[in-house]
User: Fold this.
Amino acid sequence: MADMEYVLDDSMFEKLEDSEKNTEFIAMESKTYLQDAWICFKKNKMALYGLIFLAVMIILAIVVPIVSPYTYDAQNLDACNELPSWAHPLGTDKLGRDILVRLMFGARISLAVGFVAAVLNLIIGVVYGGIAGYAGGKVDMVMMRIVDCIYSIPSMLYVILIMMVFGSNIGSVLLGICISSWIGMARQVRTQVQTLKQQEFALAAYVVGASRLRILFKHLIVNCMGPIIVSATLMVPDAIFTESFLAFIGIGISLPQASWGTLASEARSVIQSYPLQIVWPVAAICLTVLSLNFIGDGVGEALDPKNR
Assistant:
């Protein structure tokens, strides 16, 4: 076959100007996992509103008791059961104490109990469930039977016994809430770890010589953090509601300290004469729990890979 020569004619081509070289180049801004999750979270309007409400409630709980001229336990018998006014925006209770200050002081206790209980349940549940799921065999069987024994006893019985022994204080409430609330988290983590430990990445880490603790906490737990975080966000409203219920029935935070439950319990005695007094703590509990549930749903959608 004869050699063929190709001659390029410069007139067939036109030099592209520098300003047009990148007109067809499409680049996506690099985002981390958390940045991508935050963008997805912001698309959920109800979750975003819940986060804003919770942030405002936390700020008010910190600021109002500090700047207010009243304290949560200062009594003024000349101003008992007053209606809302400029001096007392939410009115006063049967002892003349400012309801707004007591409500915000109660927010400190209720929110602190909720978040601390959720963190403690998260730590205990993740560690216990992770070890049970990864160890398997007899270790798993013994650990889960212990969980079944704890779960078989009503949690309210734990709380009542702890209150009788240690008294009505924040530590007793936290201990009573946390003594059995971590069981659901432990079971969830155990199931997740049992599924993930058979995956290729876990076997590869074991082959290259990674220790069992490193595989568990560095690889397995990290890869199931999505459901764990969602469950942790839903633990906060459960703890707040439990604390409020205990205080309402008289075995929670002792007086004169104020939590939302104690405020509702005190207002119960004047509910027929001054029903507005019970509206404020009940509304605070309902709106906060509702906001936290919205936040939990938003976090679940943001961390779900299927929504990408």
